[in-house]
Amino acid sequence: MNSRIFHIAANTFREAVRDRVLYNLIAFALLLSAAAILVGQISIDIERLVVVNLGLSAVSLFGIVIAIFIGIGLVSKEIDKRTLYTVLSRPVRRWEFIVGKFFGLTGTLVVNTVCMGIGVFAALLYVSHKFQHSDTSILVALYFIVLQFVIICALALLFSTFSSPLLSAVFAFSLFVIGSFAEDLKGFAAMSQGFTRVVTVAASYLVPNFSALNVIRSVAHEHPVPWSLVAYNTIYAVVYSAMALCGAVLIFERRNLK
Amino acid sequence: MKPSQKVTAMAAFLLVFCLGASVFTRGRVDATRPTATLDEVLFFNSPKMLKRLSLGYDGLVANLYWTRAVQYFGSKHHDYAKNYDLLSPLLKLTTALDPELTVAYHFGANFLGPKPPEGAGRPEQGIELIEYGINNNPDDWKLYYDLGFIYYLELKDYSKAAEAFERGTKVPNAHPFLKIMAAQMAGHAGQTETARMLWTAAYQNTEEKQIKANAIAHLRALRVDDDVTALEKAVAAYKEKTGKLPPSMAALEIGGFIARLPLDPTGRTYKLMPDGRIEVRVPEALPFIEKGLPPGYKPGPPKLDGLEK
Predict the structure, then answer these.
(1) Residue B268: inside a domain, yes or no?
(2) What are the chain A neighbours of B63 within 8 Å (beta carbons)?
(3) What pLDDT is recorded for position B41?
(4) In this complex, which of A53, A60, A210 lies closest to B63 when CB atoms are compared?
């Protein structure tokens, strides 16, 4: 990473961690992990399952909210506060600005996930009194959640390059919902014919596949996650977010900032 | 006092007053319409729709529905309910969202079949649930056991029960007990012993407290039924030998008709009635017993609290 991108990323990270909303959301996620202990006690016989399901779901949902709400303001805030002009008046290319912002937000989300993940493991330790080998699958689930955030970050950034923060949030959240139905969309494509089939197949490949990145239920049942899935999901998340970043760069390069 | 302080004090007072008033009014509203509870409402009936609405967090939603199913059964059971209409839909939703949540199948096997107030009185729904569980977890021998359990205890269908246990024996690492059960069913001999084996297995193979308590209550009932049968046989033998009914239980022991006076599972002695029948002293403490009850006795809701320990 060149130094300009690194500096923008570092500043974005610094700016994000100063945001009070971020701490509120992390606090809520940690609170939910703690509440999982309580819910687990009334969910007879499945305490561990509840702690894993509720804890990881909280990490995922709150992380997505953080990714969307910080991601959509990354460009528009800089324009509103006119700080973007200061940055771009220096020897910084527009694409470097976008990529730096992306890495800064991704870094923030990784740190958040680590904090929330510690909360989940603490709740698990409280319920189970010890860790077991199958708990390593929870780390894989957390890694997949980070991959979800990476894709959401890239999408939020893409939308923020050409739209208002409100619309960007709506677009990003809608894509998250549609992406959760990605496998249904593929099934629907298989059942349709002719032009509809072409359109649905295209749509099913175009929307992000979040369902493959959600292995929470599987790891809650202590099933191992195949390494091939880890590898393919990693490649998919990298390629998909790179695609969204390229789109963001293309739009931002041509955007009239006057 | 400054005007701003007055406003603050007034607002604080109004806030506390309104909070108290809303709590009081809410209590009155609930008291006015006691039957209008959310317990009997299922907002989503379609497992497929619910699965999609969960946006991939189906495990979490399944856990919430499982909790609701247990609470629904617990509250209805406590109120001596005559119907458990939502128990089957709740368990179906739970298992559709998370087909590997085997505790829900075991719960269904134990509480969908028995007649109210012990259960929902819908053994066919229990069978449907377990078959769904077997389709999704074909290597879990406990599900075949659950299936045979319903066929044997609720439907008295010995051939179907034998078939279910037999299917279970083919599962890798199946409990050897299934082979014995399959053989017992085929001959459907020694029904009390078979029932005892089933309930013992039910107790040993679960961590779920309500299922454990239910199994213990049934095992205790089987013991009472055995004791009463033995005591009544002893009374008949005494009468045959002496030409009259024994004056007391002690007479049976003194006459050598029984080795010693048995105590029921609650630690109480049995009562010898003037007509020679044997009765338990506190029938409500012994749910599910079929013998030793006073004539015309109608059982109350089974009290399972604390039995699981």
Answers:
(1) yes
(2) 39, 43, 46, 49-50, 53-54
(3) 64
(4) A53
If one counts every other C-beta atom within 10 angstroms of the C-beta of residue B188, the result is: 14
User: Quick one: pLDDT at residue A229?
Assistant: 92
Q: Do B98 and A39 touch (CB under 8 A)?
A: no
pTM: 0.72
* Long-range contacts of A15-18, Cβ-Cβ distance < 8 Å, separation of 24 or more: A15/A104, A16/A70, A16/A104, A16/A105, A16/A108, A17/A108, A17/A111
Domain count, chain B: 2
| Any A CB within 8 A of B59 CB | yes
Closest CA to A43 of A28, A58, A54: A54
Does residue B231 share a domain with residue B175?
Answer: no
Chain A positions with Cβ closer than 8 Å to B: 39, 42-46, 49-50, 53-54, 57, 60-61, 177, 180-181, 184, 210-211, 214, 216-217, 220-221
Best CA proximity match to B74, nearest among B246, B211, B243, B187: B211
Write the pLDDT tens digit of every residue in A87-145: 777 877 888 888 999 999 999 889 888 988 888 888 888 888 888 888 889 999 999 99
CA distance B219 to B188: 19
Which tokens go with A104? 């800064």
Contacts of B208 in chain A (CB under 8 A): 44-45
Which residue segment(s) compose the domain that B186 sits in? Answer: 44-201
Q: What is the value of ipTM here, to two decimals?
A: 0.77
Residue A86, pLDDT score? 79
Kindly state whether residues B175 and B280 are assigned to the same domain.
Answer: no
Mutate to test the interface with B, among A39, A41, A44, A127 (most CBs of B within 10 A): A44
CA A66 to chain centre: 8
Residue listed under structure tokens 């809410």: B26
- Within 8 A of A49 by CB-CB distance, chain B residues are 59, 63, 101
Can you list the alpha helix ranges (DSSP code H) found in B41-190? Answer: 47-53, 58-78, 87-97, 102-111, 123-136, 141-149, 158-169, 177-187
Is the minimum CB–CB distance between B139 and chain A shorter than 8 Å?
Answer: no
Mutate to test the interface with A, among B61, B63, B71, B110 (most CBs of A within 10 A): B63
Final residue of a domain: which of B180, B201, B222? Answer: B201
